[in-house]
Amino acid sequence: MSKVIVKVKIGEETHRYSFEKRPNFGEFCNVVFNGSMETYNIKYVDDEQDLITLENERDLEEAWIFALQSTPTILRINLTPKSNPATQHCSQHSHQQHKVIHNAICDSCNQTI
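User: That's the sequence. What structure does it adopt?
Assistant: Structure tokens below.
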């Protein structure tokens, strides 16, 4: 099996990783994202320059096959921070300033955030 280069773009930074064999999704996340994939939206760039969501073993298999068919064998990943659900929730109450505290009650609507 060919070596696959994984290039991960986070904002203006790009990190490069080499894999001799395809890892499982958990191993991949531990190496590439330091296990913190919950904080990022993970997408890879396909042959039509579309951003394709990568969030499980099946998606990684598809991305890996795509990379192996590419010349050179590069899998390009874009990471964007996931929005904080508490921040999204309170943004509907733009007339008030909210401090984000997880597992708290919103003063405006009494929902748990």
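The two ends are 47 Å apart (CA to CA).
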